[in-house]
Amino acid sequence: MKIIVCIKQVPASSQVQIDPLTGVLIRDGNNTKMNPYDLYALETALRFKEVNGAHITVITMGPPSSKAVLEEALWMGADDAVLLTDRKFAGADVVATSYTLSSGIKTIGAFDLIICGKQTTDGDTAQVGPEIAECLHIPHISYVDKIIKIKDEAVLVSVSMDKTTEQWEITYPGLITVDKGIFTPRLPSYKRSKQLKDEQIKVLTFADFADQDESHYGLKGSPTQVERMFPPQKNTDKEVWTGTNQELSQQLFQKMKDLKIL
Amino acid sequence: MGRIIIDHTKVTKEIGEAAVKICPFNAIEYNGILSINAGCRMCKICVRKGPAGVFSVEEDVVRAIDKSKWVGVAVFVEHNKHEIHPVVFELIGKAKELAKVINHPVQAVLFTDDAKNMTEELLSYGVDAVFVYEDVRLSHFNVEIYTNLMADFIHKIRPTVILYGGTSIGRSFAPRVAARFKTGLTADCTILGMKENTDLIQNRPAFGGNIMASIICPNNRPQMATVRYKIFKKPDQVKPTGPLVKMKTAGVDFTSGLSLLEISPKPKEMDISEADTLVACGRPFKTPEQLALAYELADLLGAQIACTRPLIEAGLIDPRKQIGLSGRTVAPKLLITLGVSGAVQFTAGMRGSELVFAICDDAKAAIFDVAHYGVVGDVFAILPALIKKIKAAKGLI
Predict the structure, then answer these.
(1) Which of A14, A227, A232 shows the shortest C-beta gap to B215?
(2) CATH architecture of A2-221
(3) Which residues 126-185 of A have a C-beta within 8 angstroms of B?
(4) Residues of chain A neighbouring B319 (CB-CB closer than 8 A)
């Protein structure tokens, strides 16, 4: 069985601020990590491998520095890693990102199952998984929280919907996005990190893809544009109190009483 | 649009090394040669703030679409066994506001095995037309078939906007439609506006942090967005006027690689989205003993407990109690936040709250920008004193 796991490098901290004078985005240093939800996707693939045997390829799109997350995935137990990197991929929104990843997956070759995390912590859209499935014309199931049975031609999964729990069977080739908590992700193996020290990560660029129309990738292939960024609206009708703990608790109590909350 | 061009004749070692630091996305590299890597988001800060003349923008020629051929603000009608999800009415309310700016009709699009009285209910909220795909095979949601149906609707009716509820179904199915039409879908919008040229202004928190992004989709139609439940207000009911339009399912592909084997209802529990009073705990809560204080306050106020993401990650509280972009959206009459700093991730999920009290020890915390009454202090010092006073007032001690 061939499994592809899509992963992403994200900022380690979500603390992003705007400089009030220049309007410029201030990012907290250069710290990055693997998107936490992707750890569950990779762990799910590794469980498939343990149960039925599988070959796991991890794939990411990003600048050359995102090799770091591919290495981490190899140390956890993935067999192969593919980096999609090209200046032509830069500035991609969800549609262009999904299209680029699906082009990369087509270049890698046949697969049975693609596993994605349910969303990223920097984009929080939860859209890339379903959009990859659409680009590849394969079925998908989002928010899988349990793998019930792995069959030869399909996998039986459980999904937590808003009001119900559903069991679905998805035939291969297919795509699932998995929810946090499906399995506890393992730590990267020190032994593997030593063994795989010279492991080559395969790099694919625009030139490797079958679709050579530049307008499908990166910023050119992105229907959405960010018009502006701004700090959230403030509530101007407000009171902020300071004082000793005794004063503050009294003030709070009195206000709740005045507003007839108590 | 476009791309960043570098004038290499103006780059010295000094300029190159300094230029690397300008980019918030680490997309500028210098190793003897200055280059831009795949991290570039075209924010153009290097052009504005970078060394003079080194960076410039090459604009693309954009193919223009005829926006006048796309008419209508459509709302996808999600329902569970013929009971319409309340987010649909909230979306209809917003769709009416948006449609008014450009003088377009509001359209509801429904996929079902039996429309029953759903069409009357939709019309009573003031939609101009309900488009119904009725077929016995549509007894339950299937992401592939729903995508094919929506594609059929888009080809035939050509709405300029489609709004979806940010539910399990909406968030799984809308992205496939977006990918098929190579058009934009903005997830979890908190504010929507309309330009006179029919471009939809979609605002959402970005980068999981303290920033809002305003997003448009200027060269593609339909423009699509998902919005969580309780972000917009449900409109008043009106006298129904619009027609019911029956759509044919004959040409739609119903094959799928998915089969539903079993559905079981989740145990019913109080949903924090529906709560009138909420007490929300933030990062300082690290032990069950500390949480007991919050539960005590909640009991006294008849409130439900909610929390921020760190408490979920620490496994202290059920994930369904999380307020925020990655949790639930709430709109209670009263919200008391305890030690919550107020990242956009959180505030995006509670802006509809009518009255907000916040206790936080950081006077600069963003929570004080959204709270009506802010208390700058240590939550674990203030809470016991407050609980004591409330108990005394209720005659409990």
Answers:
(1) A227
(2) 3-Layer(aba) Sandwich (3.40)
(3) 126-135, 138-143, 156, 159-171, 174, 180-181
(4) 180-181
Task: With beta carbons under 8 A apart, name residues in chain A contacting B256.
Answer: 139
| A 84-103 near B (Cβ less than 8 A) | 85-87, 89-91, 93-95, 98-99
What ipTM score was computed for the predicted complex, to two decimals?
A: 0.89
Q: For A80-111, how does the pLDDT look when each residue is reduced to its tens digit (9 = 90+)?
A: 999 999 989 988 999 999 999 999 999 999 99
Class of domain B3-58: alpha beta
- Within an 8 Å CB–CB cutoff, is residue B151 touching chain A? no
B25 confidence band (pLDDT: 50, 70, 90)? confident
Contacts of B175 (CB under 8 A, 6+ apart): A94, A126, A127, A128, A129, A130, A131, A134, B185
Taken in order B114, B119, B120, B122, the sign of the CA dihedral is positive
- Residue in chain A lying closest to B368 (CA): A240
CB B328 within 8 A of CB B320: yes
Q: Which of 3.40.190.10, 3.40.50.620, 3.40.50.2000, 3.40.30.10 is the CATH number of B67-247?
A: 3.40.50.620
Query: Which residue ranges make up each domain of chain B?
Result: 3-58, 67-247, 272-393
Hey, do B67-247 and B272-393 end up sharing a CATH topology, with the first three levels equal? yes
A14 to chain B, minimum CA–CA distance in Å? 5
Find, among B173, B203, B209, B169, the residue nearest to B186 by Cα: B203
Q: Is the peptide bond before B86 cis (omega within 30 degrees of 0)?
A: no
Pick from B262, B278, B354, B394 the residue to mutate for testing the A interface (most A CBs within 10 Å): B262
The burial of B251, by beta-carbon neighbours within 10 Å (0-12 exposed, 13-18 middle, 19 or more buried), is given as: exposed
Mean per-residue pLDDT of chain A: 89
Q: How far is B391 from chain A (nearest CA, A)?
A: 10
Token digits for A253?
Answer: 């109590």
The pTM of this model reads 0.82
If you count residue pairs, one on A and one on B, with CB atoms under 8 Å apart, how many are there? 309
Residues of B in contact with A174 (CB under 8 A): 257-258
pLDDT surpassing 60 at residue A53? yes
DSSP A234: P
Determine the residue of chain B that is closest to A14 in CA distance.
B209
What's the pLDDT at A21? 55
Q: Report CB contact under 8 Å: B42, A93.
A: no
- Owner of token pair 């199931």: A141
Which residue of chain B comes nearest to A177, CA vs CA?
A: B172
The pLDDT value given to residue B189: 95
Topology of domain B272-393, CATH: Rossmann fold (3.40.50)
* Residues written for chain A: 262
Q: Per residue in B61-106, pLDDT tens?
A: 667 789 999 999 999 999 999 999 999 999 999 999 999 999 999 9
Chain A nearest-CA distance from B243, in A, is: 31
Length, in residues, of chain B: 397
Phi then psi for residue A170, to 5 deg, are: -120, 125
Residue A243 exposure: Cα atoms within 13 Å on the Cβ side = 13
Any idea which of A39-53, B40-54, B147-161 has the lowest mean pLDDT? B40-54
B242 to chain A, closest Cα gap in Å: 31
